[in-house]
Design goal:
By secondary structure, the protein is α/β, with parallel strands linked by helices. 34% of the residues lie in helices and 18% in strands.
Length: 221
Amino acid sequence: MEVKLNKRKALVAGSTGLIGNLLVQELVKSEIEVTALLRNSSSSKDKLISYEVVNFDDLQSSELLFDEVTDVFICLGTTIKKAGSKEAFIKVDVDYCVAVAKAASKAKIPNLSIVTSVGADPESKNFYLKCKGEVEKQISNLSFDSLSIYRPGLLIGPREEKRAAEAFGQWLQPNLIDPLLLGSAKKYRSVKASDLAVTIKEFSGLESGKSIYHFQDFLKR
């Protein structure tokens, strides 16, 4: 499946993370103009990318950045360790994601894509999965022609932030655990970040209404 996005304009929130960075690269390869929303300034330069520092607590002051955008991609995410507290984690992984989605809905942008997690559930007893489920729940109440939700398992790919436990998991899961995850359990398999980035780009606007994608749905290269 392929969606021709060459005449579209994309806005990416979370472009400095693993998935967001790869997604921006994929969009640029397709010569799609990208506006990347940042919390801090960037020295990166590309003729197709406009890096914009915004206050995610007050996106109304940046609403002009949403003009003429056709596709919004939300890849925001942090860790409790990096955020410093559960409250700070919620601000990034829930509040900021919902704020971007609300701004996109207000601007009548047709297509919105967001990366959450396999197992996302607003009723989960797991704090992380509960947060991911809550953001899905709130965004699902907004109006979009096409809403794409991606629920990957462990993401495989290089990160700027070194996480020892995750590095071990990136070796362990693909080699020893994934082969055991069969049938309905396949959705818990690890995912190459590069494959997910391509999938997000290609699937944007592909289906009307809300679509939820798991491992089995992701394009494999």
